[in-house]
Amino acid sequence: MPRVQKTCLHEALQLEPSAYAIDAGYKWPTPDRRLAATTKSGRNPLAARGQAATVLEKLTEESASRLADVFPGPLVLPDDELTNDPKYPPQSFRSWFNEPLRKNNKLNSKRKTLYVAYTPEITPGVDYMKQWRQPKVKKRSKSASEKLQPPLDDIIKYTGAFYHGLSVKPFPTRLQFVPWTEPKESGERSSGIQYVGLLAGNNCTRIRARPSPDGIFGGQLNLEDLLDAAIEMVPKEAYSIILLVDHDMYEDEDDDFCCGRAYGGNRVSVVSTARYHPALDGHAGIEFEHMWPASHCKSYVEDICVANDTQSHLGTDQRGSTSGPLWAALEAVRSLQEPVTLEDRKGLWFSRIARTAVHELGHCLGLDHCIYYACVMQGSSRIAEDVRQPPYLCPVCLSKVAYAIACELDGGDENGKEMYIKERYRLLADFCGMWKHVGMFAGYGAWLRARLEVVDP
């Protein structure tokens, strides 16, 4: 397979929501509200008693300007999650802090372990499930038949760095898919539904399965049943558990597929690796050269807006950047070519799983979808949007995670919180350095190092 020649020069970065956001009805929170959303009080931290409004406005704009090339706004492109739901309610630090479900699920010294449950083993009685893992693409390629098993040790290492301060361990019981002999209900007999069992120790949960509506996979597993199984598995000493499956998933009968979901109140999540297979990139409409961080390429964003009849809005956003951590991330991926080797494809696939895993675990810590910035906690409506989103936590979401771990769990103060953030950045940068041949990790590593130059000079 020949290497693909890049055609886009990525001459500048888009730092604000796209022109398309205007048509979608999305309104980016003001700099004042974005700063206020990082505090427990819900007030702009730059505000001071007796301060003139003009002084506060100037300080706020200066702060927003310094953060612009670090934490840009969400892109809001056609069919994105925020395009479909532009008025999704924001979750500030204050609203997160006061959320009743979160208050009942705080981290503590006896409950601070995140368990990663490896993809269940397929036992002889359900051998047919092995075929369900192979994507069916129109142009059959060697990569479509590759078994890209998740590297459990690396998922644990990445999650451990991302949620530094928590203990991340492999789930102690090997899970298995086994036959389930219970008869189907009448409605399920006519819909193609069948059952398999998910065995964890002495407990077996019934999992519904069906053919995938788009024909990409031979079978899908029901997400709600998998989450119910995960709830039954949570050890007493665990804060949370994430279940990895290498089968396609669906949520309900109207759903085509689903890649991940969390029951935050129960502190469980499930992630499917199936749709992230690189062999499906063409089917998903993924442009390799415009995955994050190149998703913020200004010409790329503007071309999409023009193609969707938003020309009249072009020019309302004149900002374009060629500096800062996001630019450093872009520079780090310029030389990377579309994956050719098996190791390259495994790395690409792994980066997508890693990003989704920490997103779903964020929900277990009480974080809702983010609407303030481009952020790993953004909601996503499709795979093509997934790969355009960043791996980092924005200032609002980072303030929540840092407070939960450094303050509530470890008893630290504001200084301890800042030290925690720096150490977390260093650990993540070290991890990314081991995967610098993979776009997301190469970009994230460069972003982290540039960020550290500012917060820890």
Question: Beta-strand level of the residues, as a percent range?
Answer: 5-15%
> How would you sum up the global shape?
globular
* Secondary structure: number of strands: 11
Percent helix among the residues?
25-40%
Mean pLDDT: 91
Spans where pLDDT lies below 50 across 5 or more residues: 1-5, 314-318
Chain oligomer state: single chain
Radius of gyration: 22 Å
The termini sit apart by 44 Å
Order of helices and strands: HHHHHHEEHHEEHEEEHEEEEHHHHHHHH
Alpha-beta classification: alpha/beta
- Number of separate structural domains: 2
The number of helical segments is 18
Strand order of the largest sheet: 2-4-5-6-7-9
Main β-sheet description: 6 strands, mixed
Protein name: Archaemetzincin-2
Organism: Daldinia eschscholtzii
GO molecular function: metal ion binding; metallopeptidase activity
Keywords: Hydrolase, Metal-binding, Metalloprotease, Protease, Zinc
